[in-house]
Fold this protein.
Amino acid sequence: MRLNDPTSGSVTCDGADLRELEPDDWRNQIAWVPQRAQLFAGTVADNIRLGAPRASAAQVRHAAEQVGAGELIDGLPEGMSTRLGEGSGRRLSAGQTHRIALARAFLRAEQSARLVVLDEPTAHLDERSAANMADAIARLARGRTTLLIVHHPALAARADRVLHIAAGRIGQIVAGPAGSPAEDSREPAPTIGMSAPTIEVAA
């Protein structure tokens, strides 16, 4: 996100140091769902469309369907036109809020984002909801570089590569079920590589 720049080393994308890119240009290529997803005063459609303001109603609906939010939205009093947020807006549960935020990220990814970042997307969800969310994340991540920040082992197991971080250092790299043969290094790894686009962190 470039909220902070590294004090040493570098972070690059496809060979370009992020410090050489305009922050807004870089952020426009990211679809991000924070650990505590936020909804804003407006309709359900408005909240999903924040990820891509020019998206059509059909594209908004498609994004919702892809992350399993279609049934949730259909159950609201006015569907996509249901108002959310403070005051007279409808309040959603943490799991429902994550669904809408994930639909927002999916729409953004479909329109422009090259990198998807999800911070603890199954936090505070029950087992069934977490499993459904994991399936939605798998659809969102298909064909895209996706960074999952998780503690949940079942969700981490879906990744191509798992990086274990302790005390601010990468201590272990393990390939997931779809990745290359596992690389298990007890020493801090100086470089992380991902595909399409290539993101690297150099110490």
Summary: DSSP finds seven helices and ten strands in the chain. The helical segments are 23-27, 44-49, 57-66, 70-74, 94-111, 127-141, 153-156. Strands lie at 10-13, 16-17, 30-33, 42-43, 83-84, 115-119, 145-149, 161-166, 169-175, 199-202. The domain at 10-202 is CATH 3.40.50.300 (Rossmann fold).
